[in-house]
Design goal:
The chain is an alpha/beta fold. 41% of the residues lie in helices and 13% in strands. α4 runs parallel beside α11, α5 runs parallel beside α6 and α12 runs parallel beside α14. The structure holds pyridoxal-5'-phosphate and (2S)-2-amino-4-(2-amino-3-hydroxyphenyl)-4-oxobutanoic acid.
């Protein structure tokens, strides 16, 4: 079923004028996106930055192939975790010398939460969000078991109330600025203040924030933060994660995975561990150099980019998505999930529909790539560096067609009858 042309024409005209006025539109050339694909899954795996393939070719052929082990010095491989850390720090409001890149978010979370518990001895509670991404909850549970603490799962909105009663017992609170399912943006400054007023440490998981919106870690006085490199930072599948340790905590930062790269004299090869000065102590073992160099090249896509403009465009894209959905999906059984107020929205729009899975599959078959989260959420992430308003309209228009033409039913039937 096609949509009434005047309605679509009006939305198309609006998309065109928004795109024409978009100061970030030229950034799209910094990415290699396949023809005919509308990519709304950069909140899971960012698109490929154009700078990455030549950087990889150089890393593999020249640095590894020719320079061989000399590259640790000659191509500054040894410095890569701190160099890439600082490049990420620039995007999350962290002055140099506080961010290290490497390992996975899960590993960094484990290190950061454990170190936080050691920084707050005698406080028996570790707080996290019952809606937090599972790995954050699992690791909180594990750290609590290791240190004899108790995890309390308190929704972000309920934190101030909880802290007023029990704050003196809390060692650390681990939360995400953006809910990975709903796309809701929490109050990062207010939560940080409330946690710290109670004498506890604030740990933010920036997986859905870094590269998507301005994060002012230093300005807000955040204690610790972690995040991944493969979503809005577009560092590639399995890209190294990062850890931020505010300078004031570094001297006492005592993380449990004391690998030799974090030693004050790694090539002294002594049998006892003496941590390096500064955030370098949070290094662990030999880092994945090829992945670090891919991430470093990917970050050049942000060169000269003002994160305030990224945020403004991201809000324009998500707001426009919601407007398109209001107009084109009305009466088709979709529910609203992501908050309407711009100040409460991250960089994704989420709709609810009982046929979410089949719909996302049917959309993907048409070249519109989003994802779903069980049981019934359709999730569409927008990366302001490479997504346009025209693509947003195209995605919602195609979702309307999939639904009205019943393509998701065919998809559902196909999925049920496919033998794998
Ligand atoms: C908030 C959050 N934390 C952590 C992760 C993943 O952790 P890891 O990079 O270790 O797989 C994700 C997504 O995969 C996430 O959304
Ligand atoms: N990290 C992922 C992976 O290795 C495979 C598939 C998806 C992911 C994700 O990033 C999921 C993501 N954190 C989410 O927001 O649901």
């Amino acid at each position: 079923m096609t949509t009434a042309t005047p309605v679509l024409d009006a939305l198309a005209a609006r998309a065109t004028s928004l795109d024409d006025a978009d100061p970030l539109a030229p950034l799209r050339e910094r990415f290699l996106l396949p023809e005919g694909v509308v990519y709304l899954d950069g909140n899971s795996l960012g698109a490929l930055p154009a700078a990455v393939p030549p950087a990889m070719a150089d890393a593999v052929r020249r640095q590894w192939g020719t320079d061989l082990i000399r590259s640790w010095n000659d191509n500054a491989w040894w410095q890569a975790p701190l160099r890439v850390g600082d490049a990420i720090g620039h995007l999350i409001g962290a002055a140099p010398g506080q961010t290290v890149a490497g390992d996975s978010t899960s590993v960094q979370l484990f290190n950061a939460l454990s170190a936080a518990v050691r920084l707050r001895p005698g406080r028996p509670l570790l707080l996290t969000d019952p809606a937090h991404f599972p790995t954050d909850q699992y690791i909180a549970d594990s750290v609590a078991r290791l240190f004899g603490l108790e995890v309390r799962r308190i929704p972000a909105a309920g934190l101030p109330g909880f802290l007023a009663e029990e704050g003196h017992r809390v060692a650390v609170a681990g939360y995400s600025p953006v809910d990975y399912r709903t796309g809701e943006l929490h109050d990062v400054p207010g939560t940080t203040r409330a946690v710290q007023r109670a004498g506890a440490l604030m740990l933010w998981d920036l997986c859905h924030a870094a590269g998507a919106l301005p994060v002012r870690l230093d300005e807000l006085g955040v204690d610790l933060a972690v995040g991944c490199g493969y979503k809005y930072l577009s560092g590639g599948p399995g890209a190294p994660a990062f850890l931020y340790v505010a300078e004031r905590h570094q001297a006492a930062f005592d993380h449990p995975i004391t690998g030799w790269n974090g030693h004050s004299e790694p090539f002294g090869l002594s049998g006892g561990y003496t941590p390096a000065e500064g955030v370098g102590r949070a290094r662990i073992g030999t880092p994945p150099i090829l992945s670090l160099l891919a991430l470093e090249a990917a970050l050049t896509a942000f060169e000269g980019v003002d994160m305030e403009l990224v945020r403004a465009k991201s809000l324009s894209l998500t707001g426009f998505f919601q407007d398109c959905a209001d107009t084109l999906l009305a009466g088709l059984g979709f529910g609203d999930v992501t908050p309407r107020e711009p100040g409460r929205r991250g960089s994704q729009v989420v709709l609810r529909h009982p046929e979410a899975y089949a719909m996302v599959q049917a959309l993907a078959a048409r070249g519109v790539v989003g994802d779903m989260r069980a049981p019934d959420l359709l999730r569409f992430g927008v990366n302001a560096l490479y997504i346009s308003h025209r693509e947003v309209l195209d995605a919602v228009r195609q979702l309307r067609e999939v639904t009205t033409d019943g393509e998701h039913w065919q998809e559902r039937f196909r999925l049920r009858t496919t033998v794998t």
